[in-house]
Design brief:
single chain; 256 residues; alpha/beta; 8 helices; binds S-adenosylmethionine; transferase; S-adenosyl-L-methionine-dependent methyltransferase; SAM-dependent_MTases_sf
Length: 256
């Protein structure tokens, strides 16, 4: 019998499920999420004008919730999705450890989101709405803001994902997606060699992602440098182990 070839999605879901237990103790991961949070606050107007508490947020690739738990106190609700069950288990463990989990305004589900009406996303959004006392919402739920950190580089078809995100938003809603920039072959060491299998691309390219977002029908598309993350990379190709600066982009756009 021929051996089954694993897809990139299967390889990275297995890897992230395994990595989930140690995820929050990775200082660089924590730092990058804190920097992404600061960038979102700088670039999404609702955080500056004091209206962020009205936002219902969808997060793609929420992982253990490092960014989600920073954002949640500032918004009305946050639904996280992730394809790695290990990540979702860690996220839910953190929700369960809150002083009153039954009042939490965030939840995460294990799903590969391919449509705006995905039953898992709709179910999570409905559960959070019920929790805050809403009843009789006309489904389907749509979001005010979609965020995603360090996940775009794992997405096989960014056009398909961006189309789903466009459909998942309310009119007037925004995306604010952060990931490291593909600034050429020097971006490859961002992942240690043993973690490169299954990685779809080594960062996102500024012009390419702007074209994808624009092509889907978003307005006011801006892709800007958000911050720089300095981290250690391993020795490779005759170069010693060293610290490198990795630029991160924030992809902003609106559904009018
Ligand atoms: C580098 S981790 C980042 C996790 C989290 N955003 C953070 O910064 O801590 C990428 C995450 O994206 C998830 N992921 C990869 N492809 C995905 C997809 N198509 N849909 C949802 N999540 C995905 C992985 O399971 C993993 O948890």
């Amino acid at each position: 019998m021929a051996a089954k070839t694993l897809s990139n999605q299967e390889i990275i879901s297995a890897r992230f499920s395994k990595d989930a237990l140690e995820w929050d103790s990775n200082k660089k991961q924590v730092e990058s999420c804190e920097k992404a949070f600061e960038a979102i606050k700088r670039h999404v107007p609702a955080f500056a004008d004091g209206s962020s508490k009205n936002l219902d947020v969808l997060e793609i690739g929420c992982g253990t919730g490092l960014l989600s738990f920073l954002i949640a106190p500032h918004v009305r609700s946050l639904v996280g999705v992730d394809t790695a069950q290990g990540m979702i288990d860690m996220f839910n463990g953190k929700v369960g450890a809150l002083p009153d989990p039954s009042k939490a305004n965030l939840a995460a589900v294990n799903v590969l989101v391919q449509e705006a009406d995905d039953v898992h996303v709709q179910g999570a959004a409905a559960a959070l709405a019920t929790r805050r006392g809403e009843s009789g919402h006309d489904a389907p739920y749509r979001f005010d803001l979609v965020i995603s950190h360090l996940t775009l580089h794992h997405i096989p078809n960014m056009g398909d994902l961006l189309t789903t995100l466009w459909k998942s938003l309310k009119h007037g809603g925004m995306i604010a997606l952060t990931d490291y920039e593909d600034f050429g072959p020097e971006a490859v060491p961002f992942h240690p060699i043993e973690k490169r299998e299954g990685v779809e691309r080594h960062g996102i390219k500024k012009d390419e992602i702007a074209d994808v977002i624009d092509g889907v029908g978003f307005n006011e598309v801006r892709v800007e440098q958000a911050f720089v993350l300095r981290k250690e990379v391993e020795a490779e190709d005759g170069k010693p182990a060293r610290e490198m600066d990795f630029p991160f982009l924030i992809c902003l756009a609106q559904k009018s």
